[in-house]
Structure formats: structure tokens, C-alpha cells
Write a structure and sequence with these properties.
three-stranded antiparallel beta sheet, alpha+beta, 233 residues
Length: 233
């Protein structure tokens, strides 16, 4: 697979780079200076959703946010990829091989953070013992076929952050705690515009969708009264 290194957006001018690619704010940073592009740092993941931060540059979203998702996410209006600002969304649509449609399936190998490179914390003096997944119940998509990707532009308040309860083990002491973990957001309003970003059979497309086509892809707005336990106040 060829690595594409698009121009770095001005929003990421202060972000560290690895191999010519931006190290996204949301991803696990490694002690050797690298980054695990397939693993989210859960505390940052939560902040992106709850504080309205771009998952790539880490800056406060000013005005509109962009949500990436596949057909199932649009149908269910449930998004797990944290929001992005416009320039970072354009960058990610070129730099990320999955979002850009350059992969036929999700990787089924061990993530970098799960291997030896993830056993050491990048923070000197920290006694956490290395990377430990925050949610042991979280399920990825290893080996699943790739799908088309879409990008929706939404205003603040158009989505509601959701969470689930999980038993989480501390990495430094091994004790366990019942925690409420952010797991994404529900789209409760209508997007301002949407794009077909890519398709695995055609690669990156970046085509704006007519409102009628977008309406077909989107499922009905959720009844928040029935989802009270899943939606954060």
C-alpha cells in the first residue's frame, strides 16, 4: 500500500509529524516518538466529544464540525469517529488510507500500541506501565470489508454525546473501577451538507451529495426520550 503524504494543513502546523504525516491529537503517542494511527487515547477521545475538539489538530472547533462515517453510521445516526475541523477533515480524507478508500478491508493484525512499542509510557516518570485499552468491551472491525466513507458538516448541538458503562482496570495498580465511558455521538439534527468521501472500489471521490441523496442515507432522527440513559446531559 502506497503512503500518501498530502500537504500539512495550517491547523496542524504545531502538531508532531511521523514519516511526513501528522500525529493526530486523538491517537496514542508512543514513547519512541511514533504514533498508533489505529488506536485512540481514550481520555483525548472523550475530550474531543465533550469539549468540542478536532480529533486531528486538537483545537477547539469554531462553528461547524465534520463527522466521518460509513453507511451504517449514517443509517443509525451513531458516529464513533470524533469530530474534525474542515481543514483537518480534508487532510484526513487524503492521508488516512481507510478513509481515502485505498484499503479493501480493515487491518486484522495487532495494533502498534498492543505490541512492544506500547509497553512504555511516553510521559517520563509516569508509573502507568504503558498503554492499556480503556474499554475492554469495545469491539473494533478487524478483517471486516472496507466500506464507503461520508463526511457531514454539522453545527454544534446537532449531535448528542453518548456513553456506556464498563469495568476499567487501572494500568498502574491493577484495580478495577466501574466507569462511564464516552463512545461516540448521536446525530439529532440535520447536517448542513454531506460528501461521499471515498469508495473502496473507486478510491477517494470527495463528491458533494444532493440533499435528496443524503436524506436516503440518513435514518430517522432518534427519540432522545427513549435514549435517556445513553446520552450524556
Amino acid at each position: 500500500m502506497t503512503t500518501i503524504r498530502p500537504p500539512i494543513p495550517v491547523t496542524c502546523i504545531d502538531r508532531p509529524l511521523t514519516g511526513g504525516l501528522v500525529c493526530p491529537y486523538v491517537n496514542v503517542q508512543l514513547a519512541d516518538g511514533g504514533v498508533d494511527f489505529r488506536t485512540a487515547h481514550h481520555a483525548r477521545y472523550e475530550r474531543c466529544w465533550t469539549d468540542g475538539l478536532c480529533q486531528t489538530c486538537g483545537s477547539q472547533l469554531a462553528g461547524l464540525a465534520v463527522l466521518f462515517g460509513g453507511p451504517n453510521q449514517l443509517r443509525d445516526r451513531k458516529f464513533t469517529e470524533p469530530p474534525l475541523c474542515g481543514p483537518c477533515a480534508l487532510y484526513a480524507s487524503q492521508a488516512c488510507p481507510m478513509v481515502a478508500g485505498r484499503m479493501n478491508a480493515y487491518a486484522d493484525r495487532q495494533t502498534v500500541a498492543e505490541g512492544t512499542r506500547g509497553r512504555t509510557c511516553p510521559d517520563p516518570g509516569c508509573d502507568c506501565g504503558g498503554y492499556v485499552a480503556a474499554d475492554p468491551d469495545a469491539k473494533g472491525s478487524p478483517g471486516d470489508p472496507a466500506h464507503p466513507w461520508y463526511a457531514l458538516w454539522v453545527r454544534p448541538g446537532m449531535y448528542k454525546v453518548t456513553a456506556n458503562r464498563a469495568v476499567v482496570r487501572c494500568s498502574d495498580r491493577g484495580c478495577e473501577h466501574d466507569r462511564l465511558l464516552v463512545n461516540g455521538a448521536l446525530l439529532v439534527g440535520e447536517p448542513l451538507k454531506g460528501f461521499l468521501v471515498s469508495d473502496p472500489s473507486a478510491g477517494r471521490i470527495w463528491k458533494r451529495l444532493h440533499s435528496s441523496a443524503l436524506a436516503v442515507l440518513l435514518g430517522p432522527a432518534p427519540d432522545l426520550a427513549q435514549l435517556e440513559k445513553a446520552v450524556l446531559p
